[in-house]
Amino acid sequence: MDFEGWMELSELYLSQADYEKAAFCVEELILNNPNNHLFHQRYAECSQKLAASKSKSKVEHVSIARKAIAKLDDQFKKAKSGTQSIHEAAMNSLLDSLV
Description:
globular; membrane; TPR repeat; TPR-like_helical_dom_sf
């Protein structure tokens, strides 16, 4: 599997704000290397951006992001705390849009 290719493709989709395709690319990476914390972190970021966008299922994407954050190992505390802060900002944005 071409890990670099999938990662570059996800970055390209992220730069074009095509978060669903970016998430798909990262899902492919996770399927082939489920223990890589960077892939889970990237997946959480994609899911958070989907939730913050005008997606129809914001709550579903927030839930997916939360699960991806939970998979980050405690040995990667900096990555986990950074991803959690992004998640909290996305949640606040979601709540503000619902009010």
